[in-house]
Amino acid sequence: KAGVTQTPRYLIKTRGQQVTLSCSPISGHRSVSWYQQTPGQGLQFLFEYFSETQRNKGNFPGRFSGRQFSNSRSEMNVSTLELGDSALYLCASSFSANEQFFGPGTRLTVL
Amino acid sequence: KNQVEQSPQSLIILEGKNCTLQCNYTVSPFSNLRWYKQDTGRGPVSLTIMTFSENTKSNGRYTATLDADTKQSSLHITASQLSDSASYICVVRWMDSSYKLIFGSGTRLLVRP
Predict the structure, then answer these.
(1) Does the structure show a pLDDT above 90 at B41?
(2) Rounded Cα–Cα distance for residues A82 and A14 (Å)
(3) pLDDT per position as a tens digit, A17-29
(4) If interface means Cβ-Cβ distance under 8 Å, which residues of chain B face chain A?
């Protein structure tokens, strides 16, 4: 089975712009979670989607949003980018509550 | 407050040596505890996952232990290799209505030749 894929792998944007990141989960996995990872904060939970519905949400401002499509693929959108949004954004998919498989991440740099 | 704390923050060891990483948590009740290995710039990869009733689990040279009474877990790496250089993250799944994952900040391990 192919693993979790994320596109793009690297992205450079400027302040004020918006960005959309994509995640394709492992085939058969219906849950997709998004995380932000920065050197100072570690892994921070953004949100989780299951069957096209947001099931959990972390403590991030409304500029961060996401959605999930009927084929379980998910997108994450960040509007009005700030310098502090520079991070590695990780997507993870799961079939059950016992395991999560992470993608390689998207490295976002905001200038 | 539900927290996961890892120690040490960073560690340097010589190739071939053993090491032990610590994870203390206050998450209660919890469903399971996982250890992940994360190479720089990559996504975390699962090493072990233990439920509250398990005491130890091995994955090759990696052995995780869990003491649910003291709320402590450790990850022991035997005969370290250069490829073990990575961050090791302890994650506890909180057994609330949302089954949230609580992440530790990780231990950065550097194995030197």
Answers:
(1) no
(2) 8
(3) 999 999 999 999 9
(4) 31-32, 36, 41-46, 49, 89, 93, 98-101, 103-106
